[in-house]
Design a protein that fits this description.
Blueprint (H helix, E strand, L loop, with lengths): L8 H10 L4 H13 L17 E2 L5 E5 L7 H4 L7 H12 L20 E5 L12 H17 L5 E5 L1 H11 L1 H4 L13 E3 L5 E5 L4 H5 L5 H16 L3
Parallel strand pairs: 2-3, 2-4, 4-6
Antiparallel strand pairs: 1-3, 5-6
Helix pairs in contact: 1-5, 4-9, 5-6
């Protein structure tokens, strides 16, 4: 799944946290951390790029879009402290990938088993829309994680953006002819040439969950499929 530029996941983590490659995103994250949301006015925001999180021997990889301004950008952990994270970790716990059904802070004791959670972009972007150049600048971290997670068998992409980011970082977007590339749709699944099972879900954003575009049943269905696929090789 692409060549590694780092020798360990710990090295990727350090590089992500120290990254200053996208000035617009760094300014935005710092500004959010400085002003804070009223509900979190007493919190000390992380305000830096957010690294991936989970089991280095994971067979399940979950790829999202980016940290939320008052979620991961506040807590320092992917999908932590916001409504999207509430959906994700509840599902991961339900299907045996997380030690508890909620993630509230990076030191809350939550542990992932056989699962690693990451994102396409590591800084919270304004309006949840990173620029193409920012996405490209951040791709090196996802490329490295893919290389350093050799046991991954199933990848769940949360949203069209994460789908495209994974395809680019893994190299399959370039290697596969257009007619053979997996297309994004909720519940879609594709077996990549290396045997990896790619599962797609709508992102559990409030825009999708509040409108009913994504329901708990739909979301759970994706992770139930991931669990069944992994049980075949247990």
């Amino acid at each position: 799944m692409g060549g590694a530029t780092f020798s360990t996941l710990a090295a990727v983590r350090r590089a992500v946290i120290a990254c200053e490659r996208c000035p617009r995103l760094r300014r935005y994250c710092a500004a959010v951390a400085g002003t804070r949301k009223r509900a979190f006015r007493d919190h000390v925001y992380w305000g830096r790029p957010v690294p991936g999180f989970g089991d280095p021997r994971a067979r399940l990889l979950v790829v999202g879009l980016a940290p939320a301004a008052h979620g991961g950008n506040r807590t320092g952990r992917m999908f932590t402290g916001d409504a999207s994270g509430d959906w994700l970790y509840e599902a991961l716990h339900r299907f045996g990938f997380a030690s508890r059904p909620e993630s509230v802070s990076r030191d809350d004791g939550l542990a992932l088993a056989d699962c690693y959670v990451t994102a396409s972009v590591r800084c919270a972007p304004p309006a949840n829309r990173p620029a193409p150049a920012e996405t490209a600048a951040c791709r090196r971290y996802l490329v490295a994680e893919l290389s350093l997670l050799p046991r991954v068998e199933v990848v769940v992409v949360l949203g069209h953006f994460a789908h495209d980011a994974f395809m680019a970082a893994s190299g399959w977007a370039a290697k596969l002819q257009a007619r053979r590339r997996p297309r994004f749709a909720h519940g879609a699944e594709a077996r990549l040439p290396d045997g990896t099972l790619l599962l797609a879900s709508y992102h559990p954003s409030q825009r999708n969950t509040n409108t009913g575009l994504l329901t708990r049943r739909m979301f759970h269905g994706v992770f139930a499929r991931a669990r069944r696929a992994l049980e075949v090789h247990t």
